[in-house]
Amino acid sequence: MEMNMKLFAKLSAFIILIVHLAGCTAGKEADLSKEPVSIVHKGSHFEVVLDFTAGTSHFDMGKAYGAAILQAMPDYEALFDSYIADTAKSSQELDYLIARVNDIKPQLNQDYVDEIEGIAASLSGLTQTSRGDGKLSADELFLINLFPDVARSTQCSALSVYGQRSETQETMTARILEWYSGTQNQLARLHAVVTYKNSAQSMVTIGYLGYMGTISGFNDDGVFGSILDAGTGLTYSSSSKYSYPMDLRYALEHYQTIDEVADFLKSPDRAYTFSHLIFLSDPSVSKVLENNVAGKANSLRDLRTEQSKLNGKITWDIPDSIGSVNSFMLKGNLNNHSYYLNNIARYESMKHELKSKGDQVSLDELKSIAAYYTGEGPREQTDGDLYTVGTQQIIIFEPGKLNLEVFFRPVSNELPAVPQFEQIPVDF
Fold it and tell me: Are residues 69 and 131 in the same domain?
């Protein structure tokens, strides 16, 4: 411990870092009035604050964040390194993924590059990449941060009510994240809620320690965005491509409305490796950006609303609400919905459960929809379950109140029959 404290003291004389080494015990709330970096272990997740208002550079912030991560979780590198090994089954596969990373890296916002390189500077792998060595190199850390762009994320879903259908008359959104857990349930030990305190526009992301993009997040204007996969079968190419989770972070840090965020992400100059969806909410409404980047006649990059005309026999006949699984639905877009049971079954369950709540939906009822499964416990998407064996997080968010509640997949890997949501403080 003495050695670690000496090492940390060298980082910066003006950085005071509060880290609670509490194992699975919740730590005290920290006074965040001056500390640029703070990590508090809350048992199910880490609460992280990165305060840029003190004038800290992005590289120095990353370096301090990396040191803080190692203080809070000494086996951080081993956990993520084993997760990478679970995904890349050989050194050759790892090299292949890193080649994709190197294609995308030049297009990343330089501030985000500096942050990731700063984190890497505090880790032990440095420039030496070796699969399964228990260390993280800079290349491997960039791989973690670009996983949705180079290795493809798995399935997710989202649902929102607003207007007359919402008990509060304002938007209430549920977002279910389903990612690969790892053979040892590694991701469950890395859940993190990260607050970026910026001088201009601050934001919160719900993701994982050291992940600097946005899987799910919102800004201080109450604009929420989350990523969902939507496959098209397009041949993969990473040449000159951007990262859509990194671009979502940028959009939430720089824009104040759903339409502005969507316009940035669907701009013709933003070319991405994979087609995807962005589920967007603000205090009054929710929309879904269908970002089909295949470049074909049936490749639309446009917003879907509850009034949008949909493909084929797909319907959404529930006013003041919108839902999404992993498929495009806009009329004229590629129909990757109607032929895939995992999409059809979840979509029909979502509609059925929402209709069963009547004309108005409470926050607790929205939680129950997000926690829906058909059998004795969470099973597969093809069973029509929304809460499945692959669920990592269920996020409940009220943009008008900045009210955030999250269920985190437990470290035990035993999913409860009823997910327990934790109230997450939001302090900009």
Answer: no
Find all residues with CB under 8 Å of 356, minimum gap 6, and list them. Answer: none
> Residue 126's pLDDT is what?
80
> In this structure, what token pair is assigned to residue 60?
């120095």
251 and 311 within one domain:
yes
Cα separations (Å) of 23 from 26, 41, 75, 198? 8, 8, 12, 30
pLDDT in tens, 349-391: 999 999 999 999 999 999 999 999 999 999 999 999 999 999 9
Q: Does residue 89 share a domain with residue 45?
A: no
Burial pattern 353-371, b for ≥16 Cβ within 10 A else e, equals bbeebeeebebebbbbbbb
End-to-end CA distance of the chain: 32
* Among 359, 378, 376, 292, residue whose Cα is nearest residue 327: 292
Tell me if 57 is assigned to some domain. Answer: yes
Q: Cα(251)–Cα(8) distance, rounded to whole angstroms?
A: 33
What tokens were used for 105?
């890296």
